[in-house]
Specification:
3-stranded antiparallel beta sheet, 3 strands, Multidrug-efflux Transporter Regulator, Chain: A, Domain 2, mainly alpha, 2 domains, about 5% strand
Length: about 140
């Protein structure tokens, strides 16, 4: 039994800001695995599992596919925990750099979309000031 696997799925979902269904789905598709289960079969998650879910949550709006998420999580795990030779470590570091570049490009794209959305809101606000608004009747 894992000692720090003390968080049940409801607490994990609340802490990460995901639904129970989403946490279960991520387990189903192999992005996360509970560290342990109670005798009654309830999932138990460690702080590392929670950190993994938080990372998955940050990848989602950047458009990473499930396969890319899985690969990136594995690359990070290998770099942190595996005893890699120099070539394996270099290949893993290259993959990590590729994902960092992809995330950066997506952020840039999202910044452009946000600027366009903010410009639209500003145009609506300026348009509303040029038209009289109705006053509530008493």
């Amino acid at each position: 039994m894992v000692r720090d696997a003390i968080h049940q799925i409801g607490e994990v979902a609340d802490r990460v800001g995901l639904s129970l269904r989403t946490v279960r789905y991520y387990e189903e598709v192999g992005l996360i695995e509970p560290s342990d289960r109670t005798a009654g079969g309830f999932r138990l998650y460690s702080d590392d599992d929670i950190a993994r879910l938080e990372l998955i949550k940050r990848m989602k709006p950047l458009g990473f596919t499930l396969d890319e998420m899985r690969d990136l999580l594995e690359v990070r795990r290998r770099l942190r925990f595996d005893d890699l030779d120099v070539d394996e470590r270099a290949r893993a570091a290259d993959r990590l750099a590729m994902y960092a570049e992809a995330a950066s490009a997506k952020c840039e794209e999202l910044r452009g979309k946000l600027q366009a959305a903010e410009a639209f809101v500003e145009s609506l606000r300026s348009e509303t000031t040029s038209h009289p608004r109705s006053t509530p009747r008493r």
